[in-house]
């Protein structure tokens, strides 16, 4: 009996040691992974900053106006006139539908076929 | 016979050779346990077990403690570079467009001492930088030097390409450079930085003075991202003003131009342009000639000042809207005459003085108002003291001991030189019901603006001034007709100020301005257009403000009104009730 308990405890001790080593290496790997992800994040952030700066440069009003003027013949863009501005209220309502007079319609159709 | 060994080991009955084993009862053990070897061992075992148990308990306890702790913020080894990088926040306009940002630029260096294979290194350089693959480069790489630059400011693609070669001894240093995508259009407002990323002018300098320099001194804000700073500037409106002023400078051959758009209800500067200008990406181009005229220059603005004279006179009660003033004969200051340009040579009512822009009439109004009232109102409008806004402003030039002659000339904008922005701020006070707000380049709400505002004229005076400026544009007799934009009720005042040439006022060299507000029944924005020394557009016509600055202001208003959310309205009746028949 004692021998079995001893063997069991020794086995547990070995397992425990193995588990501790395993956890230690897992932790190290996780820390490395985190550091590598952070470097990637930093690279991406630098790329994003660079791309945003390029975007702002390319879409600045002066560039866009120059392009619109250079390709006036193809794009046909002209400055907005004040009489071209309207709101939804300026569009007239759809007129009320006139009800169809069935009798008159049938008379017309009958007259056509005759 | 049994030999009993008393000291060593357990009692064993050893049979002596020859004798028959006789079971002899063993003496019973003593009642009190003797301190034998066995007991000492048991104690030792117990102590060892206790020691191990304590150690394990300590380990378990520490594990539990670590398990309950919060994970520390992940951080990696910061390189020495980050310690010296002074990062700056992005600067955005009110709609989030980027006006200034940091970009990281890499530079390639080599440590020739550590280069193993020079041929390999030369191959890498030749592949990415063909112009650098020279015999001199080979020599430098073969030498024993510790550090040499190969190429500074390389593109990310080049950096990637060199990195892939994997040459030991090559390395990259990233530096942060300030980049202004929009460049010259916002150069004066945004400012620029020096080589150490410290702000030199404009908002960059303001950021440093407000909080960034202290942060850097304490060791923070290095190499990490900061919250972007938003300005009140609208890039689209700024561009329109820039475009129109550039065209006007070319059309009228002016030597300089300036323009401001100010929000009347919040005091936010929506656009501020000064020409000639420079590209903040090349700060070495900044000179005195292309300084920020809107704030760093003081000018005798001329007839646009008449709005303030008449408003002061009406608000103080010294002059009534129904008064008449004699504009038949010129007024004399010493031996200099004050006369009208295209004078009416008759008695004028107050609105007529305004729309005919009569110097004589305004001078008489100022005399009736009195010197003390005139100076008091100029102080209240903020036209006699330096403007305190986020960008450095020049101090206005006011006569220290104003004479009666000064009183009369100040009435129509001479003998006093102010910065254009404080003039616009004072005009905004005339248009918004009398509340003077300090102009700001940062976003500000109406509530905050009103909380910090002072009332300089009454709401009634403001209403009268709105009607008079509208009359000036709408009525054919006014000088601002060319600023009219159909659908937007534009009101404004022209100013044709003679500049001083060789100590005397010259009638051919002028500083023209147009100060407008729209829509006049509920003004939202004040627009100033200033042209320095404009010439006639074609021979035979004049070069007064109504002919050059007024149409430019009208063109600006037509383009910016939809952007600012102001829709045109048609069919509003005209109002001539101010002019007595």
What is the number of domains of chain B? 2
* Overall mean pLDDT of chain A: 90
Instruction: Write the CATH architecture name of the largest domain in chain B.
Output: 3-Layer(aba) Sandwich
Category from helices, strands and their pairing of chain A: mainly alpha
Describe the structure.
The complex is a heterodimer of chains A (114) and B (581). Chain A is mainly alpha-helical and 114 residues long. Chain A has four helices and no strands. Chain A has helices at residues 2-58, 61-70, 72-75, 102-113. With 581 residues, chain B is of the alpha+beta class. Helices cover 36% and strands 18% of the residues of chain B. Chain B has helices spanning 37-68, 80-84, 118-128, 135-142, 156-165, 187-190, 202-217, 235-252, 293-296, 306-316, 350-355, 359-369, 371-380, 404-411, 420-431, 446-451, 459-474, 545-563; strands at 2-3, 14-15, 91-92, 98-110, 148-154, 170-179, 229-230, 256-263, 269-275, 324-326, 331-333, 336-338, 347-349, 435-436, 454-455, 491-501, 504-518, 525-532. In chain B, strands 3, 4, 5, 6 and 7 form a five-stranded mixed β-sheet that branches. Chain B has a five-stranded antiparallel β-sheet with strand order 9-8-18-17-16, sandwiched between helices. Chain B has a two-stranded antiparallel sheet with strand order 1-2. In chain B, a hairpin with a 2-residue loop joins strand 16 and strand 17. Chain B is elongated and about 160 Å long. Mean pLDDT of chain B is 88; it is low at 1-5 and 576-581. The A-B interface holds A 34-35, 38-39, 45-47, 49-50, 52-54, 56-57, 60-62, 65, 79-80, 82-83, 85, 87 and B 74, 76, 97-98, 101-104, 156, 179, 181-183, 185, 225, 235-236, 239-240, 242-243, 485-488, 558-559, 561-562, 567-568.
